[in-house]
Design brief:
The chain is mostly helical. The chain has eleven helices and no strands. It has helices spanning about 1-30, 35-50, 55-65, 70-80, 85-100, 105-115, 120-135, 135-150, 155-165, 175-185, 190-195. The longest helix is centred in the first third of the chain and has 30 residues, at about 1-30. It starts with a helix and ends with a helix. Keywords: Repeat, TPR repeat. This is Tetratricopeptide repeat protein. Pfam families: ANAPC3, TPR_11, TPR_8.
């Protein structure tokens, strides 16, 4: 009986070490941009811990980087099943809808992320962009304002708020684009030269 306990303990430790090793390898490959290899080791890890939230999310991100969007969506939805408060999973789902030009559903997912973290400038910016694209300009302006209030270095929010102000013939658009330019946002200088010079 004593030997059986020892064998079970040894197997448990061995399995745990192997599982941790797979996760470390997966994360290492993910961080170096080797997404196919990362997926292989995330799969290995998830065979032992199928409800591991971070591994599932990272595997979804790896699928997304490879353009395997349907597999990524399955993982993001699984993450939400595991933890309905995972802001990143909602943001990633929203980005997929946005990529598909389904701006209503993108806004729905971004709003869920924003409600989980009202201090998130990123969630507010993405929500504003989805509203902007779906023609809900008042909502878009509100969330661009929130994004900038949450992070006054959010160049993307300044740029798109400025563009929206110019489109609506409101004052301050060029000031916003200038701010985006000063922060160093790509494309801000071209936009400034086109509309503000």
């Amino acid at each position: 009986m004593k030997n059986l306990s020892f064998i079970l303990l040894f197997l448990l430790i061995f399995t745990s070490c192997k599982d941790q090793d797979a996760l470390e390898k997966a994360n290492s490959f993910y961080n170096s941009g080797e997404y196919k290899k990362a997926i292989k080791f995330y799969n290995e890890h998830l065979e032992m811990k199928p409800s591991h939230e971070i591994a599932t999310y990272n595997r979804g991100r790896a699928y997304e980087e490879l353009g395997e969007f349907q597999k990524a969506i399955v993982d993001y939805k699984k993450v939400i099943d595991i933890n309905p408060r995972n802001e990143n999973a909602y943001l990633s789902l929203g980005k997929d809808y946005y990529r598909q030009k389904d701006f209503e559903n993108a806004a729905f997912q971004f709003e869920k992320a924003y409600k989980l973290n009202t201090n998130s400038s990123q969630a507010a910016t993405l929500l504003a962009r989805a509203y902007h694209k779906s023609g809900k300009v008042e909502n878009a302006m509100e969330y661009y304002d929130i994004a900038i209030n949450n992070d006054n270095k959010n160049a993307e929010a300044y740029l798109y708020r400025g563009a929206l102000k110019i489109h609506l013939n409101q004052s301050g658009g060029c000031n916003d684009i200038q701010m985006a330019k000063n922060i160093g946002y790509d494309g801000a200088e071209d936009l400034y030269n086109k509309y503000c010079n």
